[in-house]
Write a structure and sequence with these properties.
alpha+beta; six-stranded antiparallel barrel; 21% helix; binds zinc ion
């Protein structure tokens, strides 16, 4: 089982690790499992991390992405030089600019969720993101330019307030007793799960979530609503982008 620091410390940019296994891919690359990592394997609308693996003697391998395989994280290493070998000591290192942009974007989207729920009682039905932009779908019957302008303004107010973002891991029973988590469809989590990781934007939003977030909303900067569209009778999509702070 790979230990993954990204869940407890989103700011960990690199970690020393040992190679557990290496398998070739059809495309000439390699699937590398390490005993520990900092690579987010993707999920919950947040894409997986990219970066490099470095050996002590100067070898560098490009990691194009990562994914979960059971309890392990598989690093998708690009074709090129010879692969590392099982037992080798490496440093797993993130493309930090990209990851930090994803952290800011993910926290921005939760802030959007929190504002839309607090002010309109509209539930989120889905979402997705890339570095510095994202979209969320909400159960709105109608949406207008005035409405999204108001939402944009309130989201920026909340970001500027400097709300703390807290990560916790709760026993299943405790998490399932929290009303805010029930509204975000925590009940859809698989039966066997005994712990639930939560992300709380203190005073605004609480969700079960596996992603990586900044520690304070102020780190997000500001957002702009870049578009909105209907995705069905009671489903409306809002697109946002981070702007220079
Ligand atoms: Zn999330």
């Amino acid at each position: 089982m790979s230990e993954n620091l990204c869940y407890s410390d989103a700011y960990a940019r690199s970690v020393e690790a040992s190679v557990v296994s290496v398998e070739p891919t059809d495309g000439g690359g390699w699937l590398v499992i390490l005993d520990r990592t900092v690579f987010y394997p993707g999920g919950g609308g947040q894409p997986s991390d990219q970066g490099v693996l470095r050996s002590t003697d100067g070898g560098v391998w490009t990691v194009r992405g990562a994914r979960k395989a059971g309890d392990d994280v598989v690093h998708d290493v690009a074709p090129g030089s010879d692969p590392p070998a099982a037992g080798d000591r490496l440093t797993a290192e993130l493309d930090w600019d990209r990851r930090y942009a994803l952290m800011r974007t993910h926290t921005a989207l939760h802030t959007l969720c929190g504002v839309v729920w607090r002010d309109y009682h509209a539930q989120v039905t889905g979402g997705n993101m890339e570095p510095e932009s994202g979209r969320m779908d909400f159960e709105f019957e109608s949406m207008s330019g005035d409405l999204v302008d108001a939402i944009e303004q309130r989201v920026n107010e909340e970001l500027g307030t400097g709300r703390e973002v807290r990560v916790r891991v709760l026993p299943r029973e405790e998490a399932f007793a929290i009303a805010d988590l029930i509204r975000t469809k925590i009940n859809l989590l698989p039966e066997g799960i005994t712990e639930v990781r939560t992300i709380e934007i203190v005073g605004l939003d609480l969700q079960a979530d596996g992603g990586t977030h900044v520690a304070n909303t102020r780190e997000v900067g500001r957002i702009r609503v870049t578009g909105y569209e209907s995705k069905g009778r009671i489903n409306k999509r809002i697109r946002i982008a981070l702007t220079a702070a």
